[in-house]
Amino acid sequence: MRDSLGDRIMVICIYTFLILFAITTLYPFLNALAISFNQGLDTSKGGLTIWPRVFTFENYKFVFKDERLMSGFVISVLRTIIGTITSILCTAIFAYGMSKRELMGRKYYMVMCIITMYFGGGLIPTFMLIRNLGLMNSFWVYIIPGLIGVWNMIIFRTFFNGLPNGLEESAKIDGCGNWGTLFRIVLPLSGPVIATLALFTAVAHWNEWFLAGIYISDQNLYPIQTILRQILLSNIVSETAANLDSASLARMQQAKTVTSKSLSMATMMVATLPIISVYPFVQKYFVKGVLVGSLKE
Amino acid sequence: MAQLSMKQTINSEPKGKFKAGLVRFYRQLDLQLMVIPALILIFIFSYIPMYGIMIAFQDYKIGHSFSSSPWVGMKHFIYFFNSPEFGTVMRNTIVISLLKFLIGFPAPIFLALILNEVRKMAFKRVVQTITYLPHFMSWVILGGLVTTMLAVDGGSINMLLEKLNLIDKPITFLSLPEYFWGILVTTNVWKEIGFGSIVYLAAIAGVDPHTYEAASIDGASRFKQIYMITLPSIMPVVSIFMILAIGNLVSAGFEDILILAADPAIRDVSDVLDTYVVRVGITNYRYSYATAVGVFKAVVSVGLLTIANFVARKSGNSLW
């Protein structure tokens, strides 16, 4: 059946709108990318769009030579890897236990979990707890409070309940205990749900900057996002009073071609890189993951 | 099998339920060991802070424990209600969250509806991939991008406006109070519109295609089909998400405001309950007072959620 004139106009409008919308979404990224590859002094003349005018690797060289930025990058990577693996593992073990009907006290445990989804202590009491536990200024503050995710536990549990019963029964007959069944049978079958939840956990770890800023004062333990925040902030407040250590500043003046703006754009690109590089591979998983998360309300 | 033997143990145990329970617990010790450590962590990191809320009713001094500070009743709440910031913070919280809700909530639905009209799958996938992207970026990165776009020295927006002869000299967007709300809401929509549309697209995919065929045979235009078929079919999903969004209504935002409102000159329009808690609590060490503000926020939130659910139940779609 052929579309009417009105329908065809509407379709044209829709395509035009979507193309424009996609361009506006992408443009800021491309603009920042161009600045990061452009010579700093030239950038300050303005007029850069999506293509570098005076192409240079200087900004990136500067980022990769800066000890503080690189240490931040390493902390972010470590935090993301360790945090994601431990959190997914601990939550999966917890969820497996909770998926068993015979578990004594299961109902009470579940109520205890669900309450935490609706009520919390808020920022200040949590901050005080972390301080009393001696977790301030420790790398483990990134890992330990996030070990168990109640929401993830519920998604895992739903998935485990959906696995065929026969599998676990036959494992039990073959002499597997609960732990053996979980690690040899159930987890190997849980690829998609593990991938989805791991992605979301990893993104959250990689992007977190605020709590790091309030729980940590040792600069060597800052993740790259927190350092980037400081650079950008000093950039906004005043171009010259950069919050960088003096050695970096000296080198920056030496380099001359690197301004704090070009430096922050290059840092931004480095801080985005890990996500951009995994993004295309995991897209099909997270679309499913969002649905798992949202339709199980 | 296992269940049967357990029942026998219970029945044959003369010393009562408690001992039987212990025996049963011991038999499933491996299972209990899977959940008990996790429950202890939840207790520590979720329940102890809830208990810590009581400092909102105390005069907490740094170095004291949760339980050894003097009780002062509602003092901090009253102080907050009477403080000069109360009016500004409340207005900003309400205006910002309402703007975010009124524009940010329908935006993904709109995107899903028009994406659904795209028949070229490759095109659709490219657009989706691009619109999901900002969701995965931190607010630090997005804040950096927005600042760059709005910069006075060579920011693209100012460049464009100058080229179009709409302005004579660049505008300091992020330092002028009149632009802040618009920038904040636009940035939020930009970040979440694509990702938010996933759920609605899935809901639309569940609509029976025969309905559309029948409608088009009856001569319904595309627009009419969207309005008469697609939209009503996704209403249950829309209403669930609306309730959740309303529950969040007093959380005007936090990271985004901390980042985009870096200039103290616009605090009059940017300060909301959450940023206020950070400022008076973490920065100025007024723990009891900041906790009281946090509790006030939580109470208002629960109230809103209840109202939203009540309204939704009247219309036939409720959460509980």
From TrEMBL, chain A:
* Positions of the ABC transmembrane type-1 domain: 73-282
Question: What GO cellular-component annotations does this UniProt entry give?
Answer: plasma membrane
- Out of the domains of life, which is the source? Bacteria
User: Which segments cross the bilayer?
Assistant: 12-30, 73-96, 108-127, 139-160, 181-203, 262-282
Cell compartments where the protein resides: Cell membrane
Pfam families linked to this entry: BPD_transp_1
Subcellular location, principal: membrane
Recorded hits in PROSITE patterns, A to Z, give: ABC_TM1
Recorded hits in InterPro entries, A to Z, give: MetI-like, MetI-like_sf
What topology does the record note for this protein and the membrane?
Multi-pass membrane protein
Which Gene3D superfamilies does this UniProt record tie to the protein? MetI-like
Q: Which UniProt keywords apply?
A: Cell membrane, Membrane, Transmembrane, Transmembrane helix, Transport
Coiled-coil boundaries: none
**GO:BP terms for this protein?**
transmembrane transport
Q: Which family does it belong to?
A: Belongs to the binding-protein-dependent transport system permease family.
Q: What is this protein called?
A: Carbohydrate ABC transporter permease
| Species the sequence originates in | Paenibacillus lutimineralis
Automatic annotation (TrEMBL), chain B:
Gene Ontology annotations for the cellular component aspect, listed alphabetically: plasma membrane
Subcellular locations according to the entry: Cell membrane; Membrane
Keywords from the named record: Membrane, Transmembrane, Transmembrane helix, Transport
What taxonomic classification does the UniProt entry list for its organism? Answer: Bacteria, Bacillati, Bacillota, Bacilli, Bacillales
- InterPro entries attached to this UniProt entry: MetI-like, MetI-like_sf
Report the protein name in the record: Sugar ABC transporter permease
Q: List the PANTHER family hit by this protein, alphabetically.
A: POLYGALACTURONAN_RHAMNOGALACTURONAN TRANSPORT SYSTEM PERMEASE PROTEIN YTEP, PROTEIN LPLB
Per the annotation, which location comes first and is thus the protein's main one? membrane
Instruction: Name the residues that span the membrane.
Output: 33-57, 94-115, 136-159, 179-205, 226-246, 287-312
Species of provenance: Paenibacillus lutimineralis
GO terms for biological process, alphabetical? transmembrane transport
Which topology term describes how it sits in the membrane?
Multi-pass membrane protein
State the family named in the UniProt similarity comment for this chain. Belongs to the binding-protein-dependent transport system permease family.
Enumerate the Gene3D superfamilies for this protein.
Answer: MetI-like (1.10.3720.10)
Supply the CDD domains for this chain. TM_PBP2 (cd06261)
Query: Which stretches make up the ABC transmembrane type-1 domain?
Result: 90-308
Q: Which PROSITE patterns match?
A: ABC_TM1
Q: Which domain of life is it from?
A: Bacteria
